User: Fold this.
Amino acid sequence: MAGFLDDDRPAPKRAHEIGQDLSQLSVAELGERITLLEVEIERLKEARETKSASRSAADAFFKKA
Assistant:
């Protein structure tokens, strides 16, 4: 009976890896990577702002106590 795990399948390829060789990518692929990374940068900035606001609120709360 075959198992449920397919260990033979390759791992999904990452959309982009920092520092990877870019010489084999087309201009269109480079543009797609840039867009992908710009979206990710915005997501990271939003997460940082949310955490910073939470931290500021906690600091303000505990300073009053």
